[in-house]
Amino acid sequence: MNLAELFTHPGLGVMSTASPDGKVNSAVYARPHVIDETTLVWGMTDRRTYQNLTGNRHAAFLFKTSSPGFSGVRLALELIKTEEEGELLATIKANTDEIVGPGAGAAVTHAVWLKVTETRPLI
Length: 123
Hints:
There is one protein chain. By secondary structure, the chain is of the alpha+beta class. The chain has a single domain (3-118), classed as Electron Transport, Fmn-binding Protein, Chain A (Pnp Oxidase, Chain A). Helices cover 21% and strands 45% of the residues. The chain is built from 3 helices and 7 strands, in the order H-E-E-E-E-H-E-E-H-E. Strands 2-1-5-6-7-4-3 form a 7-stranded antiparallel beta sheet. A hairpin with a 2-residue loop joins strand 3 (33-36) and strand 4 (39-44). The two termini are 14 Å apart.
């Protein structure tokens, strides 16, 4: 599956993480920045999803395209690194301001790099 092409389509994404003690969290997330077919980057605030990833490096991301049927993907992910500054984070903040509204990008404090460890269809 070509992730770069898939994430050009509008849709709904849900990131799921778990704390070190196993408490699960799911949150709606934007489409990622595709570095390559195994490396994806999301902008994150300093809230539950980010906190869970720093204590438990594993996550799952489900993306359902807006097209009819069940087009999309389920991804197993593992944290590679986080960045608190840099060009990519600046781009993510600017995109957030454009999509969510002026000033919204200020809440995004981390560029979180994740490795795709498994790719599965929705059904």
